[in-house]
Amino acid sequence: MSGAVRHWALIPAAGVGRRFGAEVPKQYLALAGRPVIDHAIAAFIGHPAIAGCAVVLGSADGWWSDVSAYANHPDVLRAPGGAERCHSVRNGLTALADRAAEDDWVLVHDAARPCLRRSDLDRLLAALREEPVGALLAVPIADTVKRADAGQVAETLPRSALWRAYTPQAFRLGLLRRALAQAQARDVVVTDDASAVELLGLRPALIECQADNIKITRPEDLPLAAFYLQQQQLDVQGRSG
Ligand code: C5P
């Protein structure tokens, strides 16, 4: 391998969306004229810094080929899903390794996050030039947070140091593969990629993004995402008008 380090997107999309409760997994629900997952992929495909994208699909996925405009896109690879998100990401990394180098950056982004702004993605990509470990988009927490124990407050956490971890989360392919393998070897089911890297004793950078980069989790999130996309469109039109 020669040449500059490249950037790849990895979209885990093998979840069934149990908390959402719809028959169709949430990543395939219609949002502003296309499936949720296509909004997530569109943020990367066509971006000049992104070399390609791996999409991780569940074994029972009967939707991707029928509804995604990216189903036959030459820059979109497919990988099989795993039991948990972290297993799906590992499978996506294996698929990317055919094309990507160990030092290439992989930006892992939830299929269920359709409102990623180009400006936030660009801020993350810029941060990678300064951050050897890697970085993730995140938002400082505005609410007071309680730790619960059997339905009662066990502790109030100091809010000033708390952030919500969003995606994309960007790490070198080799490092992320090692981190996820080690988490699995220790029987830790990490719920994001940064957690696996943290288990190695490393400290990814938090890059603040807009709070509209939400993950569709519950039914009320879908109209909210539609509203955010509409606002983003108006912002773009306002800037170019
Ligand atoms: O369940 P949750 O909302 O945390 O899922 C985040 C992302 O991980 C979603 O895009 C989902 O499709 C994906 N996922 C996966 N494989 C799993 C579970 C979740 O790719 N086994």
Overview of the molecule:
- The chain has seven helices and eleven strands.
- It is α/β, with parallel strands linked by helices and 241 residues long.
- It has a single domain (7-240), classed as Spore Coat Polysaccharide Biosynthesis Protein SpsA, Chain A, CATH 3.90.550.10.
- The strands form three sheets. A seven-stranded mixed sheet has the order 5-4-1-6-10-7-11. Strands 2-3 form a two-stranded antiparallel sheet. Strands 8-9 form a two-stranded antiparallel sheet.
- A hairpin with a 2-residue loop joins strand 2 (30-31) and strand 3 (34-35).
- Helix 3 packs antiparallel against helix 5 (173-185) and helix 5 (173-185) crosses helix 6 (193-199).
- The termini are far apart.
- The model has no long low-confidence stretch (mean pLDDT 95).
- The site of cytidine-5'-monophosphate (C5P) has 17 residues, from strand 1 and helix 3.
Task: Briefly summarize what is shown.
This protein has one domain: Spore Coat Polysaccharide Biosynthesis Protein SpsA, Chain A (Alpha-Beta Complex). Helix content is 30%, strand content 24%. It has seven helices and eleven strands.
Task: Give start-end ranges of low-pLDDT stretches.
Answer: none
CATH architecture descriptor name: Alpha-Beta Complex
Spatially, the strands of the biggest sheet line up as 5-4-1-6-10-7-11
How helical, in percent, are the residues?
25-40%
Q: Kindly state the mean pLDDT as a whole number? A: 95
The proportion of residues in beta strands is 15-25%
What is the overall number of helices?
Answer: 7
Named once each, the bound ligands are:
cytidine-5'-monophosphate
> What CATH first level would be assigned?
Alpha Beta
Number of strands: 11
The ordered string of helix (H) and strand (E) elements is EEEHEHEHEHEEEEHHEH
CATH topology description: Spore Coat Polysaccharide Biosynthesis Protein SpsA, Chain A
User: What is the total domain count?
Assistant: 1
The largest sheet, given as strand count, sense and whether it forms a barrel, is: 7 strands, mixed
- Global Rg: 18 Å
What is the CA–CA distance across the termini? 44 Å
The name of the CATH superfamily reads: Spore Coat Polysaccharide Biosynthesis Protein SpsA, Chain A
User: What is the 3D shape?
Assistant: globular
Q: Would you tell me the structural class of the helices and strands?
A: alpha/beta
